[in-house]
Specification:
- By secondary structure, the chain is α/β, with parallel strands linked by helices.
- It contains eight helices and ten strands.
- It has a six-stranded mixed β-sheet, with helices on both faces.
- A hairpin with a 2-residue loop joins β9 and β10.
- It binds adenosine-5'-diphosphate (2 copies).
- The site of one adenosine-5'-diphosphate (ADP) has 11 residues, from β2 and α1.
């Protein structure tokens, strides 16, 4: 069944239209990827879904409810969570503190501590570094941390912006193994931005190719593989 429906959405920054008439259909439990070069509008689409920016046109529905105009905190409470590009951790806070900061937005402290314990079972590397400051983690560990932090609000839809940026291929594999495990273990629905389709064609069910703010191609990974 359809969890997220983006219909004919455009987003402008001042006079510049960054995203034009974009439509997406994301099924419950699926993995979808938006592939496009830097500046194509990928981040803008994720921000529009997560409530960080308001479309100038179009509709967005989550679980059949209109969500345009709702605040990011409300959307987090409803089950949408964004992992922004850039691995923005709080460098002087510990791993533990970085995780708890996020959950205070929508949840009580006791619930958060339980969630964190359960969550960390999926993140053994972070568990080992629980009391270290986040600034001391490697790039891959910081990427794991921002993903874990986004999960503290118990999302059903996770939006992940360029998780592989600036990471070594082996580390990127680990990050993707983790994302796939999250879908298996928690039934998470994933919408991921990437600049190239190389890695994601292996497991993405639907791929949207974005260029200059418009979707140029949409298909199953298999269809796109045959096309290239
Ligand atoms: P991508 O994530 O694919 O790199 P973005 O969504 O970040 O693309 O950007 C799409 C276009 O919108 C780019 O031309 C970018 O410079 C512009 N843009 C992004 N954010 C802003 C902003 N806050 N203000 C003005 N222009 C922006
Ligand atoms: P991304 O591709 O993920 O958006 P960028 O490096 O393009 O990353 O953007 C980083 C930040 O700068 C974002 O907050 C974005 O909104 C903002 N930004 C990007 N392009 C512009 C622009 N042309 N004018 C103003 N802000 C911008």
């Amino acid at each position: 069944t359809e969890m997220l429906k983006v219909s004919d959405v455009s987003v402008a920054y001042g006079r510049m239209t960054a995203v034009r008439n974009v439509s997406l259909s994301i099924d419950n439990g699926s993995i979808s990827v938006i592939v496009g070069p830097n500046g194509a509008g990928k981040s803008t689409i994720l921000r529009a879904i997560a409530g960080g920016i308001k479309p100038s046109k179009g509709h967005i529905e989550f679980d059949g409810q209109t969500i345009v105009g709702r605040r990011p905190e409300d959307l987090a409470a409803s089950g949408i969570s964004l992992v922004p590009e850039g691995r923005h951790v709080f460098p002087t806070l510990t791993v533990r503190e970085n995780l708890l900061v996020a959950s205070h937005v929508v949840r009580d402290r006791a619930g958060s501590l339980n969630d964190m314990e359960r969550l960390l079972q999926l993140f053994p590397r972070l568990r080992e570094r629980f009391s270290q400051t986040a600034g001391k983690l490697s790039g891959g560990e910081q990427q794991m941390l921002v993903i874990a932090r986004a999960l503290m609000t118990r999302p059903r839809l996770l939006l992940v912006d360029e998780p592989s940026l600036g990471l070594a291929p082996k580390i990127v594999d680990e990050v993707y193994e983790l994302l796939l495990e999250l879908r298996r273990e928690r039934g998470l629905t994933l919408l991921i931005n990437e600049q190239t389709s190389k890695r994601v064609l292996k497991f993405a069910e639907t791929v949207y190719v974005l260029r200059d703010g418009s979707i140029r191609l949409k298909g199953s990974a298999q269809q796109l593989r045959l096309g290239t």
